[in-house]
Design brief:
homodimer, 266 residues, SH3 type barrels, Fumarylacetoacetate hydrolase, domain 2, 2 domains, five-stranded mixed sheet, globular
């Protein structure tokens, strides 16, 4: 089942995607809901980021093939295989939806990269769960783009702006509840050309392991998001580009790239 | 004016503290409100963390006297005077209110320290503001305790659990709107004994400078919190302790310290 959050007729609602239609639901996607008689053509609604998370987590380095590249950004030591996740969080202001622009800050060096990822959506309050039990607390999976400004990532002590600037966390288009999260393929296209391909079977820590590890110290709440981490090397995006993260079986997260409007330069 | 969030008669409301009473308000503390006729003795209500923030920011090292201590935890380089704030964020799950317990995680080394701080409360959406304008976006100030597990702070790549574990961000008791934020005294008492004293005039970056710097890349929202940073050296708290952060002119944030209930050990 594909669960989307959308705006139509000036209201925000949740719905189930069926073919090229979306059927509005009544109730909570996290507990119990029923389908209503209200349905819209998908093309007529504005699909939003699928949840309103309190927290958006990343697992730290989670693909062996990303370690060498990470070391070139973060310095030596980053290329050693981690013994456990090294969680961090993208700040909430960075969340943005499908088709919304990724905005290159005017004071950025311009070295702003895509990172195509799969994203777990927490479905229930979750604290001190085992890896085996963790999947019961995950509602489903969606696509995410862990947009990263590499100059700030190198220079700053934290990722606050390198990965947390406004619009740096596109997520969507919807939550697929019936899919094996460790058998996903993640494709990234920049202006239609494939630039990244990853397989969640290569994650050093599975979603269940990351969620379990996080939950030892942190209560996760319904709607919280957990990114997979990214693989390989990445490239910069430029204003005017279109970036797509596709996970077959889930969908395509597409975002245009824009320069920040600079009032002072007008 | 002192604005508090509280629970009384099973409802959560905001109110203005007047002497030993709290007068419930109607409206929004961020835009416009009026006093109602409903008032409670302060002793009869449950004072909560004063806002429901999306983000809880720290400025990084912000007191010259904390740099040497920080270097002993974080390694060399941390003792150099910073050229700009190095923001990071405590995760939302760590937020807790006055009189709620700080819980020492059962898998912690036990080296869990207080850090008494002043906290700015954002009052309006805030993006790319100058240091001069920033104070217009701040509603007021309260007390905060940036609880920190020093072993995890040393060992991990990020502060996710060192400073972001559940209950590691006590904030309150209320927001004082009429006070000079750079002329505050911050006292910490552990079981009644003074263990830390700081002056916000010694902040390397003022609240206005931190908020301005953050707002260059991050939209701050009403209720978001910005900690001052801490000074000097700190000590571990033990289960059974009581820790108080007092800022004269604002109030006292008091929290008991407890060990995590360990079902497996019963």
């Amino acid at each position: 089942m594909k669960i989307a959050r959308f705006r139509a007729a000036r209201r925000v609602a949740f719905g189930v995607v069926m073919g090229d239609e979306i059927v509005e639901i009544r109730g909570s996607i996290y507990t119990r809901f029923r389908l209503t008689d209200t349905r819209y053509p998908l093309a007529d609604v504005n699909i939003l980021a699928p949840t309103e998370p309190a927290l958006i987590w990343g697992p730290g380095l989670n693909f062996a093939e990303h370690l060498e590249f990470a070391a070139s950004v973060l310095g030596e030591g980053a290329d050693e295989l981690p013994e456990h996740p090294e969680p961090w969080h993208k700040s909430r202001n960075s969340l943005t939806g499908p088709n919304d622009p990724i905005i290159i800050p005017k004071d950025s060096s311009g070295d702003v990269h895509y990172e195509g990822e799969a994203v777990a959506v927490i479905g229930r309050n979750c604290r001190r769960v085992t890896p085996t039990d963790a999947r019961k607390y995950i509602l489903g999976y969606t696509c995410g783009n862990d947009v990263s400004e590499r100059t700030w990532q190198k220079k700053d002590s934290t990722f606050w702006r390198a990965k947390g600037s406004d619009t740096f966390a596109p997520v969507g288009p919807w939550i697929e509840t019936d899919i094996n999260p460790q058998e996903l393929e993640i494709l990234v296209r920049l202006n239609g050309e494939e630039v990244q391909r990853a397989y969640t079977k290569d994650m050093l820590f599975t979603f269940s392991e990351i969620v379990s590890y996080l939950s030892q110290q942190v209560t996760l709440h319904p709607g919280d998001l957990v990114f997979s981490g990214t693989t390989g090397t990445t490239k910069a995006m430029k204003p005017g580009d279109k970036v797509e993260v596709e996970i077959p079986g889930i969908g395509v997260l597409s975002n245009p790239v824009e320069a920040e409007f600079d009032a002072a330069a007008q």
